[in-house]
Specification:
Number of domains: 2
Bound molecules: adenosine-3',5'-cyclic-monophosphate
Order of helices and strands: HEEEEEHEHHHEEHHEEH
CATH superfamily of the largest domain: Jelly Rolls
Number of strands: 10
CATH class of the largest domain: Mainly Beta
Helix content: 40-55%
Shape: elongated
Structural class: alpha+beta
Number of helices: 8
């Protein structure tokens, strides 16, 4: 678990005694953007989507998380409200670490604090890359980027040798910051390049290397 990586055994014992386990049904809103933040969520299993509604009323998916991951730390750190909405995609098991226990752990164990900073830095780096790609790439490049991010983040199932992304075109559009129709066209183009195969609500990534080459304009 990235939050506790290299932390002393004692810190893990304290965290284990403090957390509360919760099970969420599919499509449950764990919290909404603007809510007060009370706890950090450590994913034990399942997928969670983090999204915001943009000024035009469209949903922008910031990330789809799967284990090992945690979320909901920003409102606690900034003593602010939730920056995004968290919704479960399928059954989710999570451990909740409430604010007071979280603060005590980061105050007592600098390793946990460093791990937290590493996650935030990695997220910022990802967002810097994403803002470049979403501004400068065409629809095919954006969709290639989104598929690669899901692939690299492990948000795929494995079906024989192929990685399977089980998301609708609308969900992919929310990740790519574009429309469903544009995603459908981009997926067709990527399929004709031989890097993916599509079925309703399913995309098989057959050639991640090829997707990367398309993203970087070398193919
Ligand atoms: P918080 O603001 O408490 O609630 C929403 C959570 O979504 C936030 O904490 C982070 O854990 C997570 N989050 C926000 N923005 C991103 C992002 N761009 N990528 C991944 N996770 C994010």
């Amino acid at each position: 678990m990235p939050l506790f990586q290299n932390a002393p055994e004692r810190a893990l014992e304290i965290a284990a005694a403090a957390v509360r386990k919760r099970v969420y049904e599919p499509n449950t809103t764990v919290f909404q953007e603007g809510d007060k933040g009370e706890a950090l969520y450590i994913l034990e299993s399942g997928l969670v989507k983090l999204s915001k509604v943009d000024l035009g009323g469209h949903e922008k998916t910031l990330a789809i998380l799967q284990t090992p991951a945690y979320f909901g730390e920003m409102a606690l750190l900034g003593e602010s409200t939730r920056s995004a909405t968290a919704v479960t995609l399928g059954v989710v098991n999570a451990y909740l670490l409430f604010n007071d226990d979280f603060r005590k752990l980061i105050a007592d164990y600098p390793t946990i604090s460093l791990n937290l900073n590493a996650t935030l830095a990695e997220r910022l780096r990802g967002m810097d890359d994403e803002s470049q790609i979403l501004s400068y790439k065409d629809a095919q490049g954006r969709v290639a980027y989104v598929l690669l991010r899901l692939f690299q983040g492990g948000v795929v199932e494995h079906d024989n040798e192929r990685a399977l992304v089980r998301l609708t075109h609308q969900e992919l559009a929310n990740l790519a910051g574009t429309s469903r129709e544009t995603v459908t066209r981009a997926l067709k183009a990527l399929e004709s390049e031989g890097v993916i195969e599509t079925r309703p609500k399913e995309v098989f990534i057959t050639d991640p290397q090829g997707l990367d080459e398309i993203l970087h304009g070398i193919r």
